[in-house]
Write a structure and sequence with these properties.
Elements lengths: L7 E5 L18 H4 L2 H4 L2 H6 L1 H17 L4 H12 L4 E5 L5 H4 L7 E3 L2 E8 L5 E3 L18 E5 L9 H10 L2 E5 L11 H7 L3 E6 L11 E4 L2 H12 L4
Parallel strand pairs: 1-2, 1-7, 2-3, 7-8, 8-9
Antiparallel strand pairs: 4-5, 4-6
Helix pairs in contact: 5-9, 7-8
């Protein structure tokens, strides 16, 4: 990254993967309108009914494997390759579509974890894993049968927060793509970046809960508005 290139932090949410066939959470027909998040995305839900929770995530893993990156994922990867080190993706998504689109893995931070990784709920050992989750499988490190998806559940602390806040304080531009702005701490990133002097841009199907905090907003499907924004940013306008 050269001095004159703006450093950009790009927050992505479920909306960027919607056109890849991975449902969002709070839209009509979204995941949390079909199942209670308390039952499948909390430590308490896992303690109550681990079989149900693991079945839920095994199904999400299958869907994710069957999905393909869309033009929005590919456009962001193109931006990152054209401007090495200038654009950091902070994603709330647990799918690997950014990486499969060609984003450099060390420039994508999965703050809510990843579906293709497994975590031992006993010793916290985490590992890449594409075998079905099961209560019968023991942890490869401690042997205890307490495996779960390496996904951050409600009430748990997201990953990479220190690196994320450091990047928000340094960036010149904060861009939010495909997120409703309903869930903290991600929903607070725009205010943090703004307070540190960054310009702010929202790219979403509709105004999010934090819309008033953005200097500029473009509304439409990510597969159309994200490639347009990347082309403008790369001066191909
Ligand atoms: N293009 C652009 N934006 C879209 C599209 C699309 N094709 N489809 C939907 N959206 C927008 C919706 O308008 C909405 O604002 O994406 C947003 C999706 O919001 P949510 O379903 O709330 O998903 P997200 O913001 O990522 O949720 C945050 O909550 O459930 C937890 O951990 C989970 O990471 C998730 C977090």
């Amino acid at each position: 990254m050269t001095q004159d290139e703006p450093s950009i932090v790009i927050l992505t949410g479920a909306g960027i993967s919607a056109e890849s066939g991975l449902g969002t959470f709070r839209d009509a027909g979204g995941l949390w309108t079909q199942v209670r998040l308390e039952d499948v995305a909390t430590p308490e839900g896992f303690a109550r009914d681990p079989e149900r929770v693991l079945a839920f995530y095994n199904a999400r893993r299958e869907n994710c494997r069957a999905a393909q990156p869309n033009p929005a994922h590919r456009a962001l990867a193109r931006l990152q390759r054209a401007r090495p080190g200038a654009a950091l993706i902070v994603t709330q998504n647990v799918d690997d579509l950014h990486e499969r689109a060609g984003s450099p893995p060390d420039e994508v931070l999965h703050m809510h974890g990843r579906l293709d990784r497994t975590l031992c709920n006993f010793c916290r050992h985490a590992f890449d894993d594409d075998a079905p989750l099961s209560t019968a499988r023991g942890c490869p490190a401690c042997g205890v049968q307490a495996l779960r998806p390496d996904v951050v559940w409600f009430g748990e602390v997201p990953y990479h927060l220190e690196r994320i806040f450091a990047a928000l304080e340094r960036c010149d531009l904060f861009v939010s793509i495909g997120t409703s702005g309903e869930v903290h701490p991600a929903a607070g990133f725009v205010a943090h970046a703004r307070a540190a002097g960054a310009r702010t841009l929202e790219l979403n199907l509709e105004p999010s809960a934090g819309a008033r905090l953005f200097d500029k907003a473009v509304h439409g499907p990510a597969s159309r508005i994200v490639p347009q924004w990347v082309a403008e940013t790369l001066g191909e306008g």
